[in-house]
Write a structure and sequence with these properties.
alpha/beta, disordered N terminus, 11 helices, two-stranded antiparallel ribbon, TIM Barrel, 8-stranded parallel barrel
Length: about 300
């Protein structure tokens, strides 16, 4: 039920009021389509959430950069941090009130978008305190899954924290087959899952294809350990991101597999090619591609 207080929050947030009357349903023939908020990396968190609502996407993996630093009304910081920026972020992570994350969760709930997972990519520069806080952030956001672009040595460090907090960590792979510590190959995912029962897979089918692996075969054999998929189109042999349908990634086949087998694995749009429209327009095109694939 929508209370007056909720109504006031909606008005202040500038979100379409109708969206909070019910959760947005972006499930197509049993396949849950959602979005990684990284797709809207040119927008602030507040504007990214509005774009999700406008595109009709009801499930989200939250890109950590969208909210870190305490400025959800500003565009996220890029990946090339200065030493000073890194120290500022460390201080913020270890001192920010968890109420900040609870408020972010409320914004999702008010918008009618389900917050499914939180992307917090542990790396070599993380202190133990920063690792610990990532799990506390996830709890405050009320999600049971952290996704992470990380490495095998760092994943080993994170094991006791995952076990302490009992939160799943889904490893995100890329297409770098040269570094044995990178998550990329089926063997690298298996090595992580052997470390900890709470370690699972966040399979990016675009990167997996670019690394010359078969996404359909891997999902068929490992669906029970895959927490979510990232949908994008890339060329094989570590090729470029492309407009959907112009690369080698079996997006349609993967979606049809989920539909046929009724596996409850969310398929999240990750817009990463160089589109001509706004991020909201390009993500909408990707969503339409999913609808047509599942028709």
């Amino acid at each position: 039920m929508l209370t007056r207080r909720d109504f006031g929050k909606l008005t202040l947030a500038g979100l379409p009021i109708a969206s909070a009357l019910a959760s947005i349903n972006s499930k197509i023939d049993g396949v849950q389509i959602g979005v990684q908020s990284y797709s809207f990396r040119d927008l602030s968190f507040d504007d990214a959430l509005k774009a999700m609502v406008a595109d009709g996407l009801g499930e989200c993996e939250l890109f950590g950069n969208h909210i870190e630093g305490g400025h959800p009304d500003q565009k996220p910081m890029g990946f090339d941090e200065t030493k000073e920026q890194r120290e500022e972020l460390r201080k913020w992570r270890t001192s920010v009130s968890l109420d900040y994350f609870k408020d972010i969760r409320k914004r999702f709930d008010t918008a009618g978008v389900k917050l499914y997972s939180y992307n917090y990519s542990f790396n070599d520069s993380f202190t133990d305190d920063e690792i610990e806080r990532g799990f506390e952030f996830a709890k405050a956001l009320d999600v049971g899954i952290i996704t992470a672009s990380t490495t095998l040595p760092v994943a080993k460090r994170v094991v006791p924290f995952a076990e302490k907090h009992k939160i799943i960590v889904a490893m995100h792979g890329h297409s770098n087959r040269k570094d044995p510590n990178e998550f990329c190959t089926p063997e690298s995912f298996a090595a992580a899952m052997a470390m900890c029962k709470l370690y699972k897979v966040n399979l990016d089918i675009g990167h997996f294809t670019a690394a010359n692996f078969d996404a359909v075969d891997y999902i068929t054999k490992n669906h029970q350990n895959i927490m979510e998929l990232h949908l994008k189109d890339r060329k094989k042999n570590d090729g470029d991101n492309t407009v959907w349908g112009e690369g080698d990634t079996p997006i349609k086949q993967v979606l049809l597999l989920l539909k046929e087998k009724k596996w409850p694995v969310p398929a999240l749009i990750e817009y990463e090619y160089d589109g001509k429209g706004t991020s909201q327009e390009e993500v909408k095109k990707c969503f339409e591609y999913c609808k047509q694939a599942l028709a």
